Structures are given as structure tokens and as C-alpha cells.
């Protein structure tokens, strides 16, 4: 697979994809800021009990990562394919926290039943797809694979 597609200037994408990318970026910045401020305790509910790092440290670190990723989605347009791949990977990495919240029956953000916590699990793949599609990363990966 020709991975230079990831580091080349990103190809043009439709306006709707650009708006979706900026929207995702702003949402990540907002979520990251709330990690560090008003929603710290709510986010701590998403840290699985088995995770070896202190809950507050985990929430602060993931909040900082979300702010950087979100800002990168908005301003690093030349690198949006690479940023989209990193954002999708981030959503994969934090998915065990969502599973842990469901399995450990932890309330947070209005997710106060197992059904609500379980339903939320299906939103994570949507976020991954959103990151890949809106940045052109999905198309870049397809193009790289077709060159083989």
C-alpha cells in the first residue's frame, strides 16, 4: 500500500465534508475543554476500573488530546488525511472506556441505564466513520490500496 497518500497534500473534498470535518473538530475541542473543566467527574465514569492510570489523570490527558485533535481537524487542512486517521484511531482507543461504563454500570452524561449505555456503543463507529469520511482519509486509503 502506498502510504504517501497520507502525507501528501489532502485532495479536495465536497463542501459538506469540510463542514462535517470542522463540526467534528469543534465538537472535539468542546468535549476536551469540558474534560478539563465542568464535566471532569462525568468523564471519570467512563474510565474503566481496570485501567492502570488514575481516573482524573486519564480524563485530563484525554481532554488535552481531544483539544489538540479537534483544533487540528479545523486548522491543519493540508494534513487533514493524517489527522483524520489519528482521530479515527483515537475513537478506537477510547472505545474500551465506553464498554467499561456499560459493563460496570457507571452513570454519566445521562447514561443511567444499561440500555442507554449499550446504545451509546453504536455511536463510536459513527464517529470513526465521520473522521475518516470528512477528512478524505477514507478515499485516500482506497486510492493507496488501488495503486498496489
TrEMBL record:
It comes from the Bacteria. The chain crosses the membrane at residues 12-37, 57-76, 83-102, 122-141. Keywords: Membrane, Transmembrane, Transmembrane helix. This is DoxX family membrane protein. It comes from Cellulosimicrobium composti. The lineage of its organism: Bacteria, Bacillati, Actinomycetota, Actinomycetes, Micrococcales.
Amino acid at each position: 500500500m502506498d502510504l504517501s497518500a497520507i502525507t501528501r497534500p489532502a485532495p479536495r473534498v465536497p463542501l459538506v465534508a469540510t463542514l462535517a470535518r470542522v463540526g467534528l473538530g469543534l465538537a472535539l475541542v468542546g468535549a476536551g475543554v469540558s474534560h478539563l473543566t465542568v464535566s471532569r467527574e462525568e468523564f471519570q465514569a467512563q474510565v474503566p476500573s481496570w485501567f492502570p492510570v488514575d481516573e482524573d489523570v486519564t480524563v485530563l490527558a484525554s481532554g488535552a488530546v481531544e483539544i489538540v485533535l479537534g483544533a487540528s481537524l479545523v486548522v491543519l487542512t493540508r494534513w487533514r488525511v493524517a489527522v483524520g486517521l489519528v482521530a479515527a484511531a483515537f475513537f478506537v482507543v477510547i472505545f474500551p472506556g465506553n464498554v467499561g461504563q456499560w459493563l460496570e454500570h457507571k452513570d454519566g452524561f445521562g447514561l443511567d441505564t444499561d440500555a442507554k449505555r449499550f446504545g451509546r456503543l453504536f455511536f463510536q463507529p459513527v464517529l470513526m466513520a465521520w473522521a475518516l469520511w470528512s477528512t478524505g482519509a477514507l478515499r485516500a486509503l482506497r486510492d493507496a490500496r488501488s495503486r498496489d
